[in-house]
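Question (not urgent): is this output format expected?
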Amino acid sequence: MVKRNEHLIAAELYWLEAYLPYHRRTDIKAVEELLTSAQRELRESERDDPSLGVRILTDLSYVNVALNRVDKAEELGLEARRIAEHFDLSGEDRCNAFLSLAGVYLARGRYEEAHTAAKTALDSALSTRRRARAAVELAKSDHSRGRYDNALAILTTAIDQTVPADWLAHLVIRMGQVYAGRKEPEEALKHFRRAKEILLKLYGEKHPTIADILYDVAATYSSMGDFEQAEIALRASIQLDTDLFGPNHQALVLSYVEYAFQREARGDNNGALELRRKAFAIAESRLGWESPQTVSAGSALAISLVNTRQWEQGLVLSKRAYDWYVERTGYQMLHTTEALSAYWRALWESGQRQKAYSIVMAHLKKVRDDHEATHRIGDWARSMRESGKLPGFSGKKNSKKKRG
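Got this back:
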């Protein structure tokens, strides 16, 4: 006769066994199998353990996000939240449930909902590890909406607490990314170097997060115009991800997009186009269009298509990306402006000049409080008026009325 708690013990053992490969992100399918076995054993147990159930469900939710099964991930996260609230579980279990939902909403580009879920997780967390994790997710939601000061305040508060070394590294990485977003590259590089030193001591060189840091370093050097240092870091990142995951893994998408930017900056538009095609193909097949990573890769590909005079393909892809960004993140975000750049140019060159001008002017009205965006988009509108190709405008010499 099977002992009453044998299935419960087996469930916990499966869950514990799943932790290491998930933590190292090296075999996500194996992790899913272990967590599914844990879930099955828990269901067969005669003793209910809602806390273990929440842990299994939240980890399964993270795995499904990684495998781009976001609908399933959301379903699992909502079930974890329901159990945590129904049984009035401890703050840690409640924190876990809302953390999984924050991850789902970030993956979907639903940043307001991600912020709410992450804030609830942070308020519920009891341990410094959980508080650090919640702070990273909360900062991501603010960073994604351009709220850099808020993100830095959240991260600084978390770092000032006693945090386990692995999560200290993640907090420092996120802080570097926020500084990069604020266009403070030297400060960003300082944080990336600090995070890399921490992780090298913990895991050695063969760890996915090291590849992530190398990518961030490359992107930061690119923003400074130092393409030589950027290429060194980027090649190292690509090689490490390829060694860990193979040549067609989603981890390579952003690296290929960044490498394309470097090629483009050196005048190699065709090389940039091929890298962006590769990035978009991987992202679309692995993640689907609704993933922010796929949209970003598609927007970048649209720019290359426009730069190489492939207007029709560029128009379809740029419009799709622009509409997605406007709906999900609003008009103010840099990603939206980049998508607009390809969109209006594709419209213009395909003969839809009045429509191109109307879209640019409509967008300009939405970003009046953003000086940099206003200046950039205003320049586009001015170039259209002065081109002599826009109905109602005769070109440079008549673009301004004389005084008196």
